[in-house]
């Protein structure tokens, strides 16, 4: 096995193993599962691990260099119209390719799938163009976020309450495994040609701004469509009796996901070919590496999505229904928090973000620190989501104060942490959230007889919210520690100067004697 692939697969194993163990323990002590269902879940976990390994390696070999190359080329372009047009087209193409968005679109009634997908794509395209202009003209990210989120919060009061959770969920699902590696690399490429002190911090923030566009777009869409209830089609866990049945179920599903991922990757591959023809940026060896990387990305996404959708999602819905039926169904809150703590590590785009953060900050913000902070944030998110399902609490009471807190914090933390935090929110809400946590929430809501549209939807939005606060708090702690170390270094330097003066005086006194 390729040493790099082995390394990525081991990282995936360490990320997926805890959540697999939690589900197995729940099936033993709280919610007994049929052996066939358990086997489906385990096989799904194995496919997920292999898929994440291939995907991470593919993103590193292909998506990142393509994104960086386009970012560098845009930074050289003087025509603002061409910059805006490129940003819009790239944002729209990648969003239409995003598998998570296809999943969400199928769950929202009264809105045609293509209408929702195109609306979200336009929102991402417009705001990615805006994000590129921000980097070129060095506009302060915190101020821009405050203005845009003020607009977002104002718009949220003008749409039906039933549509609010879906709108905020759409902002999370657009930043998934296809979008994040490309957009983040583009940000690094855009900022790489700058030599000012804010170039590193400005390389982040594209994902953050790209997440706002679809929320605003879907809020506007809510003024024309009035869905009253959600239709969820995850289905039951496939009934299997033998190992041959297991192979058959996954074998039948793989071609479907192979076709979906191929359709998703083709526009990106086409953009890369056109970009290479016009710029001749990459030499033969790089082209070969990118081609292999695209193949790895394709294989990884097929395995990942098949494993998650066929093995994980039905189990999530089943666990939600069964746990909600228990007399002590409040246990959903701590169980949800425990699942949330570990499930975020299994998001493929999270690892891409964490490694890029570590590289850009020269190790000052480590992968381990980012993982811990993201896990705490998502654990709180899922706990709040389960509380909402059990109590019927409106998402507005959490989302609006949460974003206000995040925006206030953005005025007090180092600039680089603002971009990282707001990027991390979109990245955290990936396919694991939409295909395991959302079914868990919907299964719970169905068992309790709640309103799916207002109570179950919104878990993706909450997962996208709390990392904003958690990582900015980490930034404040980092800032305090850095200042303390600097003060200590100055004190040590002053002490050394004092010692040198005393020694000089003693030597001078000795000479006078």
Draw up the topology in text.
Blueprint: H1 3-29, H2 35-76, H3 80-97, H4 99-107, H5 113-137, H6 141-156, H7 161-173, H8 179-192, H9 199-202, H10 206-221, H11 243-279, H12 284-324, H13 332-343, H14 348-360, H15 367-391, H16 396-409, H17 415-428, H18 431-448, H19 452-456, H20 459-512
Helix pairs in contact: 1-2, 1-13, 2-8, 2-11, 2-12, 2-14, 3-5, 3-11, 4-5, 5-10, 6-10, 6-16, 7-10, 7-20, 10-17, 11-12, 12-18, 13-15, 14-15, 14-17, 15-18, 15-20, 16-20, 17-20
Features:
513 residues, mainly alpha, 20 helices, 81% helix, 0% strand
Specify the number of helices: 20
Strand content is: under 5%
Task: Note the run of SSEs as H and E.
Answer: HHHHHHHHHHHHHHHHHHHH
Radius of gyration: 24 Å
Structural features, described:
The chain is mainly α and 513 residues long. The chain is 81% helix and 0% strand. The chain has helices spanning 3-29, 35-76, 80-97, 99-107, 113-137, 141-156, 161-173, 179-192, 199-202, 206-221, 243-279, 284-324, 332-343, 348-360, 367-391, 396-409, 415-428, 431-448, 452-456, 459-512. The model has no long low-confidence stretch (mean pLDDT 81). The protein has 20 helices and no strands. It is globular.
């Amino acid at each position: 096995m390729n040493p790099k692939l082995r390394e990525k697969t081991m990282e995936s194993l360490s990320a997926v193993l805890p959540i697999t163990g939690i589900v197995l323990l729940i099936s033993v002590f709280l919610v007994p599962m049929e052996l066939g269902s358990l086997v489906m879940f385990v096989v799904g976990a194995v496919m997920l691990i292999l898929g994440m390994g291939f995907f991470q390696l593919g993103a590193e070999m292909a998506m990142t260099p393509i994104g960086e190359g386009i970012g560098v080329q845009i930074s050289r372009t003087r025509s603002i119209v061409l910059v805006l047009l490129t940003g819009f087209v790239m944002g729209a193409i990648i969003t239409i390719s995003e598998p998570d968005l296809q999943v969400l679109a199928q769950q929202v009634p009264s809105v045609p799938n293509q209408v929702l997908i195109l609306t979200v794509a336009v929102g991402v395209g417009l705001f990615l163009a805006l994000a590129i202009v921000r980097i070129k003209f060095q506009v302060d990210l915190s101020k821009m976020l405050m203005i845009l989120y003020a607009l977002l919060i104002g718009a949220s009061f003008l749409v039906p309450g039933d549509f609010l959770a879906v709108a905020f969920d759409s902002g999370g699902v657009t930043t998934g495994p296809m979008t994040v590696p490309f957009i983040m690399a583009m940000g690094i490429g855009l900022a790489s040609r700058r030599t000012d002190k804010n170039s590193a911090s400005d390389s982040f923030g594209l994902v953050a701004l790209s997440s706002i566009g679809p929320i605003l777009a879907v809020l506007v869409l809510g003024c024309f469509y009035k869905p009253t209830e959600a239709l969820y089609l995850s289905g039951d866990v496939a009934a299997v009796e033998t190992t041959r049945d297991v192979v058959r179920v996954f074998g039948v599903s793989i071609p479907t996901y192979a076709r979906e991922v191929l359709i998703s990757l083709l526009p990106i591959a086409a953009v890369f070919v056109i970009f290479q023809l016009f710029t001749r940026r990459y030499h033969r060896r790089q082209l070969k590496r990118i081609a292999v990387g695209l193949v790895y990305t394709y294989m990884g996404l097929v395995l990942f999505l098949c494993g998650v959708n066929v093995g994980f999602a039905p189990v999530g819905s089943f666990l939600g229904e069964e746990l909600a039926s228990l007399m002590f169904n409040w246990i959903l809150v701590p169980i949800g928090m425990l699942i949330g703590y570990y499930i975020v590590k299994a998001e493929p785009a999270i690892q891409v973000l964490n490694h890029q953060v570590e590289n850009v900050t020269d190790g000052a913000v480590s992968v381990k620190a980012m993982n811990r902070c993201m896990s705490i944030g998502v654990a709180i998110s899922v706990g709040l989501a389960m509380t909402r399902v059990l109590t019927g609490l409106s998402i507005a009471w959490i989302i609006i104060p949460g974003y206000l807190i995040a925006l206030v914090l953005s005025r007090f933390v180092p600039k680089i942490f603002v971009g990282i935090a707001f990027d991390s929110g979109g990245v955290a809400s990936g396919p694991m959230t939409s295909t395991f946590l959302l079914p868990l929430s919907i299964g719970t809501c169905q068992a309790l007889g709640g309103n799916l549209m207002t109570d179950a939807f919104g878990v993706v939005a909450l997962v996208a919210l709390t990392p904003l606060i958690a990582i900015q708090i980490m930034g404040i702690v980092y800032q305090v520690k850095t200042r303390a170390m600097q003060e200590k270094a100055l004190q040590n330097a002053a002490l050394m100067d004092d010692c040198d003066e005393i020694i000089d005086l003693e030597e001078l006194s000795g000479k006078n004697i």
